[in-house]
Amino acid sequence: MDFNVIIDNLPFLMKGLFTSFQLAFFTIVLSLSLACLIAIGRISNKKYVRYPSAIFVNLLRSNPLILIVFWFFFLVPLITGRPLPAFGSVLIAFVVFFSAYFAEIVRSGIQSVGSMQIKAAQSTGLTYPQTMRLIILPQALKNMLPALVTECVIVFQGTTIAYIIGMREFLHSTSLVAERTIRPIELYLFAALVYLIICFTGTRIATLLEKKE
Amino acid sequence: MNYEFNWSMLLEEPYIDWIKEGLLNTVQLSLMAWFIALTIGILIGSIRMMKSPVLRFIGTFYVEIFRNIPLLVQLFIWFFVFPLLLPDDLMRAWNSLDGVPFLTALIGLSLFTAARVAEQIRSGITSIPKGQFNAAFSTGLNTFQTYRFIVIPYAFRIMIPAISSEFLTIFKNSALTLTIGVAEITAAATYIESDTFRGIEAYSVASLSYMFTTASVVIFMTWLENFLRIPGLIGKK
């Protein structure tokens, strides 16, 4: 084994890792915002809001991420009339997919806050959106923090799927170097180690947050 | 949007055969992997609850390694790296096997999911009151017997929801094995799409298969959960 091959190609590999982080970051920020709206829709007492939100969540949660990526890769150019760069198409698929998972976490977070809080907040004259934003969501956020961190780790692991449609994220960069240098052992083990360190840190944080409560 | 639907082409040769083969592969792979993952997962999960620090460390080590490396990377390692690390004659024997992608996928999926199952098992066992262990020991059961007769049957029922959701996870995760050449249902959909440019029809078949299976498993597991509920524990109606 010759690990020099990794040092030689480090800048290229790190560029891939940066793309992975970018994809994970934008996915988390965008899908979490969308998820808050969906979660509020899921617990709404209006049927025409509750049912579509429930269908959206269950539809996405029963499909594999890779299939959702294929769907959007095919559908987006069809709708917009021109092909989108891989990053855009993957990001849309990821945001839609993970918003369903985040929505379930946010929903159980909201439901962990006592229902009397809503009544108390509204009796002070706050409107429903104000109650959600100022009273319920901040408390819910604290309760769901461990689950959110775990889900962020899953998002980061999920970015490897962008490899399949040819986006040059970390796994793809690794496989390109592995093919060019014919050193698959060193490179794939290195990739595994990098993912292990990052994701292990994430799961540790989640465990610590859980214990703190 | 300009798209003409042609659903009937899905029933034509050879597409209908691709779909059948894809479904068969997905179901076979997920069921076999789930079974292996449950076996290994129960073992690892129990090891993590033992008194011996060495055994506990092995259990924790396994879970952290297999849980924190993305499944796709693990599949690549089993597919590209593992055969290279074998001694020469073993490597030749491995490469001459039929269906190496399927076997690789089975190993990768099972070991990945076993780590998740082990976590579920551990939290299931931790949720059992300590008094149960003491009561079992006081009747003269040894550690193995306590787990075999008291803890596992008890914990298993508490964990049914988690274990069924692991089956659904494995079922969806099996789609990733298309990257190492397993012709499962998502792969079949992509073959049809690239052959006919009919993405909506092709991906609908795959999506509907996943949704149908998910719905069936959820319905069956809800029934099973009710059927096996421990009276007095989780409010049996």
* CATH class label of chain B: Mainly Alpha
- The CATH architecture classification of chain B is Orthogonal Bundle
Unreliably modeled segments of chain A: none
**CATH architecture designation of chain A:** Orthogonal Bundle
Radius of gyration of chain A: 20 Å
Based on Cα principal axes, name the global outline of chain B.
Answer: flat
Query: What count of domains describes the coordinates of chain A?
Result: 1
Strand content of chain B: under 5%
Greatest interface and its residue counts? A-B, 35 and 40 residues
Q: Regarding CATH, which class of chain A?
A: Mainly Alpha
The secondary-structure class of chain A comes to: mainly alpha
Task: Return the CATH topology of chain B.
Answer: MetI-like fold
Name the CATH superfamily assignment of chain A: MetI-like
- What is the count of DSSP helices of chain A, taking H or I runs of 4+ residues? 9
Throw out a few tags for this protein.
heterodimer; A: 213 residues; MetI-like fold; 9 helices; 82% helix; globular; B: 237 residues; mainly alpha; 10 helices; 0% strand
Can you walk through the features of this model?
The complex is a heterodimer of chains A (213) and B (237). Chain A is mostly helical. Chain A has one domain (4-212): MetI-like fold (Orthogonal Bundle), CATH 1.10.3720.10. Chain A has helices at 4-8, 10-42, 47-61, 65-80, 86-111, 116-123, 128-158, 170-181, 184-212. Chain A is globular, with a radius of gyration of 20 Å. The termini of chain A are far apart. In chain A, 39% of the residues are buried. Chain B has 237 residues and is an all-alpha fold. Chain B has a single domain, classed as MetI-like (MetI-like fold, Orthogonal Bundle), CATH 1.10.3720.10. Helix content of chain B is 76%, strand content 0%. Chain B has helices at residues 15-47, 53-68, 71-85, 88-95, 100-126, 130-138, 143-158, 160-173, 185-196, 199-228. In chain B, helix 8 (160-173) runs antiparallel to helix 10. Chain B is flat. In chain B, 39% of the residues are buried. The model of chain B has no long low-confidence stretch (mean pLDDT 88). At the A-B interface, helix 4, helix 7, helix 8 and helix 9 of A face helix 2, helix 3, helix 8, helix 9 and helix 10 of B.
